[in-house]
Amino acid sequence: MKPFRSCILALLPLVIGTAWAQDFSAQPSIWAGKPDGNAFDKIENDHLAAAQRAIDALVAVKAPRTIDNTLKLFDEAVMQLDSAAYLSGLMEQVHPEEAFRNKATAMVAKTNAAQTALSLNREVYRALAHLDLSGSDSATHYYVQRQLLEFRLAGVDRDDATQTKLKKLQDDLIKEQSAFERNISDGENSIAVTDPADLQGLPQDYIERHKPGANGKIQISTTYPDFYPVMKFAKSDELRRRLNLASDTRAYPKNTAVLKAMMGTRYEIATLLGYSSWADYNAQDKMIRSGANIAKFISDLDAAAQPTMQRELAMLLEAKQKVHPGASEIWDYENWYYPEQVRRSKFDFDSQAVRPYFPYQQVKQGILDTAAKLFHVTFRQEQNAPAWEAAVETWDVLDNGKPIGRFYLDMHPRTGKYSHAAQFPLLDGVHGKQLPEAALVCNFPAPTATDPGLMEIGDVTTFFHEFGHLMHHILGGQQHWAGIAGISMENDFVEAPSQMLEELIRSPAVLAGFAKHYKSGEPIPADLVARMNRAAAFGRAGFVARQNALSAISYDIYKTKPADVDLDKVSEDDYVRYGAIHRTPGTHMYDSFGHLANYSSMYYTYMWDKEIALDFYAQFDVRNPFAGETSIRYRQHVLEPGGSMSANDLVKGFLGRAQNMTAFKAWMSEQFAGSATKGP
Ligand SMILES: [Zn+2]
């Protein structure tokens, strides 16, 4: 019954006692019992049964509705359902045995169904609506008001006929969303290259991995490891153009009908519930609050990004004109290649030069030390603690020596494991009842006897990012209610604390703590950090502008009646207008824009949270982010409240005002500030 969580937060519960003291001696890890598939099923079914008992008891109450006889039971149901959903969601992605993962997938469906049933339970809704809240604190008021809003957005207060329709539309939408996503992942494409000279510019190891086949042709696919090196390094315009087109059309035309059906279903849901568009309906329980505010954000961000983006564009065109004299436009298939050229020629930075300073174990310890200093906590590894896989580490988080949470690190690839990076919640923290738990699931290179697992700078940034989610879950998990614990606020705030932590990688003071050469132990040279930061700053405005173009496409597709939307026109116009990049005719990118399924009109979230994250980080002393009171205020005002108030109020609590674009603008134009300027 919690709002949908964006950043792929799945979930893991431990055995939940109702009266545990807040101490790990009383809250053993679920893996202490090393559950097999049957034990897993029992744990899950016990959670679901406990949730149902709480709901039945709540509904059976005849007396006036109070916190004790109603909200406590409701929150118990929320906690039990979350626990079941978290565990199955994680196990589906990480358990080493396929049979166990399949069991978990079935359990994910079962727990989702139980959560949906609660969201449409009229008796529970009426009970909460009649709750006597006098004398309760503001967090409890906020919790109940937010739950009532979620109930109404699900249509719980509508008549039977409307509810039947809504249920059917929701079922249709789930099917349409998964068809849309499946068509994209099934649609991986490839192109054939006849002349090996077309691979000029690509790294030697790439060329060696792409030898001509029996037919004399080289196959290049649209999967990331094949795609990005070509886009960044291949000198051949034709090769980049063909591969980019193959990627953009990988679900075309199959997904056009699916997308139109999805737009139609969403429009019907929104209008049945009294809203003029899906974008407006979907914004109701977000920080942004309305479709009109999404349009305003896109327009404000456009104004902030354009001037710097134009300067970057001039540098890209200058690089392009060396090859194509007189060129006046940048095309989609040139949009990785020329930035790479500029980074090399103007900033003298090769990203491989920093890898020796980032062996995995050193980075892990560095991030733990950084988080400990920044958030005023300590970390302690539980030695020999069993987990779902031998390589998984179990860590306690302590505040003034007292345990306040636990997390698991499952950091290296293995067959059948989730292939991206994400934080998965496992248990909601409820003060005096249950400590919060979470897992980080990543795919960083594992250290071996001969290789210390040197990380790319992008991987180190990802580690910081995911650790930001983790600390948010743990520090926000000290609430009185499970339903407002951890990352449970409006989901267009979720990526702010994680993106805030990413910024630390720019700080020489932070890097000095752990970036040491894996052979010599020498700290990373200051001038290398400076060059890395300058190179990283190039192209930010263009990146933001293109993200904004995608936000505009996602909003424009859902802001009105589907019959009024010309998909080709909307996507081409927005891309040129906001992104200043021309699309190769015939790309139909909307059919492979996966976020149109799960984020729908909410793609703006990424840049919305970037603005907030940069405004947050600007409050810190960049030369020494640990200095002064800022980090403790950040912990208290941003992380600790969890979902006990609107994220708009969290932001005001820390900044003393609403977020604004000042820091975002400075971040975008950092390359042109002071001595870093080498461009026009
Ligand atoms: Zn994230």
Task: Write up this protein.
α12 crosses α19 (540-558), α13 (337-347) runs antiparallel to α18 (526-537) and α16 (495-502) packs across α22. Helix content is 53%, strand content 6%. The radius of gyration is 26 Å and the shape is globular. The protein has helices spanning 37-60, 67-94, 98-119, 122-129, 138-154, 160-186, 204-209, 224-233, 237-248, 254-272, 278-283, 291-323, 337-347, 360-375, 457-475, 495-502, 508-512, 526-537, 540-558, 567-579, 595-598, 605-617, 630-639, 647-655, 662-668, and strands at residues 190-193, 218-221, 378-382, 393-399, 402-410, 422-427, 437-441. Strands 3-4-5-7-6 form a five-stranded mixed sheet. Strands 1-2 form a two-stranded antiparallel sheet. The protein folds into four domains: 30-156, Endopeptidase. Chain P, domain 1 (Glutathione S-transferase Yfyf (Class Pi), Chain A, domain 2), CATH 1.20.1050.40; 191-248, no CATH class; 278-351 and 538-674, Neurolysin, domain 3 (Orthogonal Bundle), CATH 1.10.1370; 354-524, Collagenase (Catalytic Domain) (3-Layer(aba) Sandwich), CATH 3.40.390. The longest helix is centred in the middle third of the chain and has 33 residues, at 291-323. The termini are far apart. The chain is built from 25 helices and seven strands. By secondary structure, it is mainly α. Mean pLDDT is 92; it is low at 1-22 and 675-680. Residues 7, 465, 469, 495, 498 line the site of zinc ion.
